[in-house]
Design brief:
The chain is globular. The chain has helices spanning 61-77, 90-122, 135-138, 149-162, 164-177, 187-190, 223-245, 259-270, and strands spanning 3-10, 21-28, 36-42, 48-50, 55-56, 125-131, 181-185, 211-213, 220-222. The protein contains eight helices and nine strands. It has one domain.
Length: 271
Protein backbone atom coordinates (compact mmCIF):
# COMPACT_ATOMS: atom_id res chain seq x y z
CA UNK A 1 0.00 0.00 0.00
CA UNK A 2 1.22 3.48 -0.88
CA UNK A 3 1.23 6.37 1.62
CA UNK A 4 -0.34 9.62 0.48
CA UNK A 5 -0.31 13.02 2.14
CA UNK A 6 -3.66 14.79 1.92
CA UNK A 7 -4.07 18.51 2.62
CA UNK A 8 -7.37 19.68 4.10
CA UNK A 9 -8.52 23.29 3.90
CA UNK A 10 -10.94 24.97 6.31
CA UNK A 11 -12.58 28.04 4.81
CA UNK A 12 -13.00 31.02 7.16
CA UNK A 13 -16.32 32.18 8.56
CA UNK A 14 -16.97 35.80 7.57
CA UNK A 15 -19.03 36.47 10.71
CA UNK A 16 -16.31 35.27 13.10
CA UNK A 17 -13.40 36.63 10.97
CA UNK A 18 -11.56 33.34 11.18
CA UNK A 19 -8.28 32.81 9.36
CA UNK A 20 -7.73 30.21 6.64
CA UNK A 21 -6.52 26.99 8.27
CA UNK A 22 -4.64 24.05 6.76
CA UNK A 23 -3.80 20.68 8.23
CA UNK A 24 -2.20 17.59 6.74
CA UNK A 25 -2.62 13.91 7.39
CA UNK A 26 -0.84 10.84 6.00
CA UNK A 27 -3.26 8.22 4.72
CA UNK A 28 -2.69 4.69 3.46
CA UNK A 29 -3.94 4.08 -0.08
CA UNK A 30 -6.16 0.98 -0.22
CA UNK A 31 -6.79 0.87 -3.99
CA UNK A 32 -7.27 -2.68 -5.25
CA UNK A 33 -7.82 -4.33 -8.62
CA UNK A 34 -9.49 -7.51 -9.79
CA UNK A 35 -7.85 -10.43 -11.58
CA UNK A 36 -9.28 -9.64 -14.99
CA UNK A 37 -7.74 -8.22 -18.15
CA UNK A 38 -9.28 -5.64 -20.46
CA UNK A 39 -8.52 -4.09 -23.82
CA UNK A 40 -9.67 -0.50 -24.39
CA UNK A 41 -10.11 1.51 -27.56
CA UNK A 42 -10.56 5.28 -27.22
CA UNK A 43 -12.44 7.25 -29.82
CA UNK A 44 -15.03 9.92 -30.60
CA UNK A 45 -17.92 7.75 -31.79
CA UNK A 46 -17.65 5.73 -28.56
CA UNK A 47 -15.52 7.33 -25.86
CA UNK A 48 -14.41 3.86 -24.71
CA UNK A 49 -14.96 0.45 -26.26
CA UNK A 50 -13.96 -2.65 -24.25
CA UNK A 51 -13.00 -6.05 -25.62
CA UNK A 52 -16.12 -7.71 -24.14
CA UNK A 53 -18.40 -5.53 -26.28
CA UNK A 54 -19.14 -2.89 -23.63
CA UNK A 55 -19.17 0.66 -24.99
CA UNK A 56 -19.21 3.92 -23.04
CA UNK A 57 -20.62 6.80 -25.05
CA UNK A 58 -19.12 10.25 -25.15
CA UNK A 59 -21.22 12.65 -23.00
CA UNK A 60 -20.12 15.59 -25.25
CA UNK A 61 -20.01 18.26 -22.57
CA UNK A 62 -18.43 20.79 -24.93
CA UNK A 63 -21.07 20.24 -27.61
CA UNK A 64 -23.85 20.72 -25.04
CA UNK A 65 -22.42 24.11 -24.03
CA UNK A 66 -21.05 25.19 -27.43
CA UNK A 67 -23.97 27.52 -28.18
CA UNK A 68 -23.57 29.32 -24.84
CA UNK A 69 -19.81 29.70 -25.43
CA UNK A 70 -20.37 31.05 -28.95
CA UNK A 71 -22.93 33.60 -27.74
CA UNK A 72 -20.69 34.78 -24.91
CA UNK A 73 -17.67 34.99 -27.24
CA UNK A 74 -19.74 36.98 -29.75
CA UNK A 75 -20.60 39.52 -27.05
CA UNK A 76 -16.91 39.78 -26.12
CA UNK A 77 -15.89 40.42 -29.74
CA UNK A 78 -18.26 43.39 -29.91
CA UNK A 79 -16.58 45.08 -26.95
CA UNK A 80 -13.28 46.95 -26.92
CA UNK A 81 -10.72 44.19 -26.62
CA UNK A 82 -7.13 44.76 -25.37
CA UNK A 83 -4.68 45.75 -28.09
CA UNK A 84 -1.32 47.44 -28.23
CA UNK A 85 -1.76 50.83 -26.59
CA UNK A 86 -5.49 50.25 -25.99
CA UNK A 87 -6.93 49.29 -22.65
CA UNK A 88 -9.72 46.70 -22.57
CA UNK A 89 -13.12 47.98 -21.54
CA UNK A 90 -14.88 46.78 -18.41
CA UNK A 91 -17.65 45.28 -20.54
CA UNK A 92 -15.10 43.22 -22.50
CA UNK A 93 -13.60 41.93 -19.24
CA UNK A 94 -17.06 40.98 -18.02
CA UNK A 95 -17.88 39.16 -21.30
CA UNK A 96 -14.49 37.39 -21.34
CA UNK A 97 -15.04 36.29 -17.76
CA UNK A 98 -18.39 34.77 -18.77
CA UNK A 99 -16.69 32.75 -21.55
CA UNK A 100 -14.08 31.46 -19.12
CA UNK A 101 -16.77 30.56 -16.60
CA UNK A 102 -18.61 28.32 -19.11
CA UNK A 103 -15.36 26.71 -20.31
CA UNK A 104 -14.36 26.03 -16.71
CA UNK A 105 -17.73 24.36 -16.11
CA UNK A 106 -17.18 22.09 -19.12
CA UNK A 107 -13.71 21.14 -17.88
CA UNK A 108 -15.03 20.28 -14.40
CA UNK A 109 -17.86 18.18 -15.85
CA UNK A 110 -15.38 16.25 -17.99
CA UNK A 111 -13.01 15.73 -15.07
CA UNK A 112 -15.85 14.45 -12.90
CA UNK A 113 -16.91 12.02 -15.64
CA UNK A 114 -13.32 10.74 -15.94
CA UNK A 115 -13.23 9.97 -12.22
CA UNK A 116 -16.50 8.07 -12.55
CA UNK A 117 -15.31 5.97 -15.51
CA UNK A 118 -11.80 4.90 -14.48
CA UNK A 119 -12.86 3.05 -11.25
CA UNK A 120 -15.14 0.83 -13.38
CA UNK A 121 -12.06 -0.37 -15.27
CA UNK A 122 -9.44 -0.41 -12.51
CA UNK A 123 -11.56 -2.15 -9.86
CA UNK A 124 -12.05 -5.30 -11.99
CA UNK A 125 -8.84 -5.59 -14.02
CA UNK A 126 -5.16 -5.89 -13.18
CA UNK A 127 -4.07 -5.78 -16.85
CA UNK A 128 -5.16 -2.86 -19.03
CA UNK A 129 -4.15 -2.74 -22.69
CA UNK A 130 -4.76 0.16 -25.06
CA UNK A 131 -3.19 1.65 -28.16
CA UNK A 132 -0.49 4.31 -28.08
CA UNK A 133 -1.95 7.53 -29.48
CA UNK A 134 -0.15 10.62 -30.72
CA UNK A 135 -2.78 13.08 -29.51
CA UNK A 136 -0.69 16.11 -30.39
CA UNK A 137 -0.48 14.99 -34.02
CA UNK A 138 -4.14 13.92 -34.11
CA UNK A 139 -5.33 17.38 -33.05
CA UNK A 140 -3.11 19.42 -35.36
CA UNK A 141 -4.66 22.16 -37.46
CA UNK A 142 -5.46 21.43 -41.10
CA UNK A 143 -2.82 22.43 -43.62
CA UNK A 144 -3.11 25.73 -45.45
CA UNK A 145 -5.29 25.45 -48.52
CA UNK A 146 -6.95 22.26 -47.31
CA UNK A 147 -10.51 21.73 -48.61
CA UNK A 148 -11.52 19.82 -45.47
CA UNK A 149 -10.53 22.47 -42.94
CA UNK A 150 -13.96 22.60 -41.24
CA UNK A 151 -14.13 18.80 -40.96
CA UNK A 152 -10.66 18.68 -39.38
CA UNK A 153 -11.61 21.42 -36.92
CA UNK A 154 -14.72 19.48 -35.91
CA UNK A 155 -12.73 16.26 -35.49
CA UNK A 156 -10.14 18.03 -33.33
CA UNK A 157 -12.92 19.47 -31.15
CA UNK A 158 -14.50 16.01 -30.75
CA UNK A 159 -11.17 14.43 -29.71
CA UNK A 160 -10.49 17.16 -27.16
CA UNK A 161 -14.06 16.94 -25.88
CA UNK A 162 -13.48 13.31 -24.80
CA UNK A 163 -10.28 14.23 -22.95
CA UNK A 164 -8.50 11.03 -23.99
CA UNK A 165 -5.10 12.10 -22.66
CA UNK A 166 -6.35 12.85 -19.14
CA UNK A 167 -8.48 9.69 -19.04
CA UNK A 168 -5.55 7.50 -20.08
CA UNK A 169 -3.25 9.05 -17.49
CA UNK A 170 -5.84 8.51 -14.72
CA UNK A 171 -6.33 4.85 -15.64
CA UNK A 172 -2.57 4.31 -15.88
CA UNK A 173 -1.80 5.92 -12.51
CA UNK A 174 -4.57 4.06 -10.67
CA UNK A 175 -3.75 0.66 -12.20
CA UNK A 176 -0.05 0.93 -11.43
CA UNK A 177 -0.79 2.25 -7.92
CA UNK A 178 -2.86 -0.87 -7.24
CA UNK A 179 -0.05 -3.15 -8.50
CA UNK A 180 -1.52 -3.87 -11.95
CA UNK A 181 -0.04 -3.52 -15.44
CA UNK A 182 -0.76 -0.88 -18.07
CA UNK A 183 0.35 -1.76 -21.63
CA UNK A 184 0.33 0.62 -24.59
CA UNK A 185 0.30 -1.17 -27.95
CA UNK A 186 2.50 0.41 -30.67
CA UNK A 187 -0.13 1.59 -33.14
CA UNK A 188 2.08 1.85 -36.25
CA UNK A 189 3.43 -1.65 -35.74
CA UNK A 190 0.28 -3.56 -34.72
CA UNK A 191 -2.44 -1.39 -36.37
CA UNK A 192 -5.31 -2.43 -34.04
CA UNK A 193 -8.08 -0.72 -36.01
CA UNK A 194 -7.07 -2.51 -39.23
CA UNK A 195 -6.33 -5.98 -37.80
CA UNK A 196 -8.78 -8.84 -37.33
CA UNK A 197 -8.72 -10.06 -33.70
CA UNK A 198 -9.68 -13.57 -34.76
CA UNK A 199 -7.15 -14.39 -37.52
CA UNK A 200 -4.77 -11.39 -37.61
CA UNK A 201 -5.59 -10.43 -41.22
CA UNK A 202 -5.05 -6.71 -41.92
CA UNK A 203 -7.20 -4.54 -44.15
CA UNK A 204 -7.22 -0.76 -44.35
CA UNK A 205 -10.53 0.83 -43.28
CA UNK A 206 -11.93 4.31 -43.64
CA UNK A 207 -13.34 6.22 -40.66
CA UNK A 208 -16.84 5.73 -42.10
CA UNK A 209 -16.59 1.91 -41.68
CA UNK A 210 -17.92 1.32 -38.17
CA UNK A 211 -18.26 -2.49 -38.39
CA UNK A 212 -15.33 -4.89 -38.75
CA UNK A 213 -15.98 -7.59 -41.38
CA UNK A 214 -13.01 -9.88 -42.02
CA UNK A 215 -12.90 -11.12 -45.62
CA UNK A 216 -10.60 -13.99 -44.66
CA UNK A 217 -12.37 -15.64 -41.66
CA UNK A 218 -15.77 -13.87 -41.91
CA UNK A 219 -15.47 -12.58 -38.32
CA UNK A 220 -17.71 -9.57 -37.68
CA UNK A 221 -18.07 -7.14 -34.75
CA UNK A 222 -17.98 -3.45 -33.92
CA UNK A 223 -14.84 -1.75 -35.23
CA UNK A 224 -13.84 -0.24 -31.87
CA UNK A 225 -14.48 -3.51 -30.01
CA UNK A 226 -12.30 -5.36 -32.53
CA UNK A 227 -9.49 -2.85 -31.93
CA UNK A 228 -9.79 -3.37 -28.15
CA UNK A 229 -9.54 -7.15 -28.64
CA UNK A 230 -6.38 -6.76 -30.74
CA UNK A 231 -4.81 -4.62 -27.98
CA UNK A 232 -5.64 -7.25 -25.34
CA UNK A 233 -4.28 -10.09 -27.51
CA UNK A 234 -1.01 -8.19 -27.93
CA UNK A 235 -0.70 -7.58 -24.17
CA UNK A 236 -1.41 -11.23 -23.40
CA UNK A 237 1.26 -12.22 -25.90
CA UNK A 238 3.74 -10.06 -24.00
CA UNK A 239 2.60 -11.68 -20.75
CA UNK A 240 3.17 -15.18 -22.14
CA UNK A 241 6.60 -14.16 -23.38
CA UNK A 242 7.50 -12.84 -19.93
CA UNK A 243 6.35 -16.10 -18.30
CA UNK A 244 8.53 -18.11 -20.68
CA UNK A 245 11.51 -15.88 -19.93
CA UNK A 246 11.20 -16.21 -16.16
CA UNK A 247 12.85 -19.00 -14.23
CA UNK A 248 10.73 -21.91 -12.89
CA UNK A 249 11.39 -20.80 -9.31
CA UNK A 250 9.88 -17.36 -9.90
CA UNK A 251 6.76 -16.59 -7.87
CA UNK A 252 5.82 -13.34 -9.66
CA UNK A 253 3.35 -14.91 -12.07
CA UNK A 254 2.36 -12.57 -14.89
CA UNK A 255 5.11 -10.00 -14.29
CA UNK A 256 6.99 -8.48 -17.24
CA UNK A 257 10.32 -7.75 -15.59
CA UNK A 258 12.22 -10.23 -17.78
CA UNK A 259 11.04 -8.80 -21.11
CA UNK A 260 14.04 -6.49 -21.42
CA UNK A 261 16.49 -9.33 -20.70
CA UNK A 262 14.84 -11.56 -23.29
CA UNK A 263 15.01 -8.83 -25.95
CA UNK A 264 18.69 -8.17 -25.22
CA UNK A 265 19.49 -11.89 -25.50
CA UNK A 266 17.67 -12.04 -28.82
CA UNK A 267 19.70 -9.11 -30.20
CA UNK A 268 22.97 -10.72 -29.07
CA UNK A 269 22.06 -14.00 -30.74
CA UNK A 270 21.33 -12.23 -34.04
CA UNK A 271 24.76 -10.58 -34.18
Amino acid sequence: MATKRITFRLYPNKEQNDKLHYWRRDCLSTRETGNGAVGIDFGTHHALALDDGTVIDNPKFLKQNQQKISQAAKKARRKRNPQKGVKASRRWKKAAKEVGKIQSLVARQRQNWHHQVDPLIVSCNSLVATEKLNLKGMTKKAKKGSKRKKQKTGLNRSILDVGIGNLKSLIKSKVTEAGGFYVEVPTQKVKPSQTCPNCGHQKKKTLAERVHNCEKCSYSCDRDVASAKVCLNYARGMERASLDAESPSSTLCGSMKQLGTMKRQKRLSQR
